[in-house]
Amino acid sequence: MWAWLTRWLRPAAPLRPPAQPATFVDPAVYGKWREANRRPLWLPVTQEGQLPGSASRFGGAPDLAADEVWPRCPHCRATMPLFLQLDVASLPAGAPMQVESGAGLVQLFGCTNCGALSEDGSAVARLLPPAARQPALMGHDTPLLTPRSIVGWQRYEQRPTGSEWDGDDLPDDEPEEAQAPWEDHHGYGRDMLGGWPSWVQYAEYPPCPVCQRPQRLLFQIASEEGLDFMFGDVGTAYLLYCSHHADQLAFSWQCT
């Protein structure tokens, strides 16, 4: 008898609110946002080899001053090959880093012995101050990636994609756009200076360690285009920097 009354006296479970339908952004609002956030980008024009007088390049030997060291992997202790080197002073007018710093040498190194590159020290990104430098001396076992010198730039303007949108849902039937010059025939991003990253998975902007502002793209590196290296399974790498503290660089990569 008491058990029967307990069931009837038990308070009723609260009713769940009805599911709210998805709210899609007005296409006109989304289009206006994209136009307002255009960014310039530059595709590198390259030639095979480490050409004299061309400090910007993929692979090869880094340029170092007498007191500068070639980074070693903290895990296997191997000399890390150069992935990318940019002479800031020779970058196009208006390009990222050229505006904020104006001079110096950006270098990106990565260990190719320890498997996947990560943020545990197996990749080093740095901005060196202007100085007299020469290609580093190498031993017979110094690992090098095939050098390709950057001898010019092609400028374009790029609108952000939906991966950068932070608002109401985008409609599922968002119209497809023609292949852009900064995309390959699979739709993946190519090597480029500046612009909006072609995220393989999702937008990922680390905060600057100094001011906590989100960093922005300096250079995007595709697998096996200018650099003779594959990031995971045909992945894409991103070198980012703080526009207020140009010496604060970050490196990441994504793949499917």
From TrEMBL:
<dbReference type="InterPro" id="IPR035948">
    <property type="entry name" value="YwqG-like_sf"/>
</dbReference>
<protein>
    <recommendedName>
        <fullName>DUF1963 domain-containing protein</fullName>
    </recommendedName>
</protein>
<dbReference type="Pfam" id="PF09234">
    <property type="entry name" value="DUF1963"/>
</dbReference>
<feature type="region of interest" description="Disordered">
    <location>
        <begin position="160"/>
        <end position="180"/>
    </location>
</feature>
<dbReference type="InterPro" id="IPR015315">
    <property type="entry name" value="DUF1963"/>
</dbReference>
<feature type="compositionally biased region" description="Acidic residues">
    <location>
        <begin position="165"/>
        <end position="177"/>
    </location>
</feature>
